[in-house]
User: Fold this.
Amino acid sequence: MTEDPTPNRSDTTEMIVDEYLARVEKRLRLREADRAAAMTEIRAHIEDKIRDEQERSPARHRADIARDVIDDFGSPQDIAVAYTPEGPVLHLPSGDHVIRLGRAVGRGTARFFKIAAIVLGVLLVTAIGLGAFAYAEFKPIIAANAPYEVFHYRESCNPCDGISLNEPFPVHSRAREVRLEVSSHATGNGSGTFSVDVIDSNGTVHYSRTYHDLDDNNASVDTTLPAVPGTWRAVISYSGYHGHAHIEVWTIGLPPDAGIWEAGW
Amino acid sequence: MVDDEKALAKFRDKMDRELKSGLVSLILLHVIHRRGPDYGYNLLRTIQEASGKRLAFKEGTAYPLLQNLERMNLVTSFWSGGAGGPPRKYYQITELGRTALEQALGDWSDLIDSVQNILHNLGNGGVPK
Assistant:
């Protein structure tokens, strides 16, 4: 003998009620605790009323009674709307629907911005944390490899006769190398010259060159010199030179008292 | 004719809703006051029986009204388990609720008087064509 798979009337009633309550619960926009309390209250009401109606009309099918009770209770949509903060929409004049809609939109917008502000705050804190971590972690590497300007000279004259410079600049103990950049741009076809000598603290000349405007028009050089700590000098002189002279000296490696933000990338 | 019937039905529906606006809350508060602590189903059954089942509204929309009364501190609630049944939420009126009820009933009485005065003074022998 096989079991009858058809649910009995009582099971059908339970299914009707459970299905209805599930639809109500799905639509309720309440905090979890409030929703659970509301659902307990609604279930008790429906079960009480089904029981009372069954006692009044014992001949009626329980499932039919359940359908009537659910109909009296209201649609899940109406109940969900009634649980909104302004109360049941069914009891409001129709003009208030617009006000309610406006309020709902306003609340939604405010909630969006609130969540956005929280997310941005979290991202900002995370970014600051990562930045601080990266700063601590990579500071030694950056300090050892960052370029740091120790000398900068720019002149533009026509002619530059009479100018002669002997400028000191420091090469600190943490420097790994010294990088020199010289560029010139002569104007016209004069016969002047422009010479640069770079000398370390021991008097050793590491770079020496004379630029002739006719030969070295737009000349540019970028060379690396050994890092000898101490006070270096850049000696620059002109003779009938017409044009522009630009000299920069960098150390690779920051001085001990410099922050990494002073790196001259 | 069909349009007229629709318009009349719409008007009656609108009137019905507007007249009930706030009224169900007042009635709920009154019933809670008269019956003492009781739970939702009993309160609503009392209203239906006392009104001769003429005050029709969807019962599900009354529970949010009870929640609103509680939020306004006009009623308090507590849970109590039924004998073998599900737990039920009992509502009871507060001092503030009694004061609010007294004022609301006064307002309601004034409103009824005003409406009756209007109907009386302008005559209530039917609507002139």
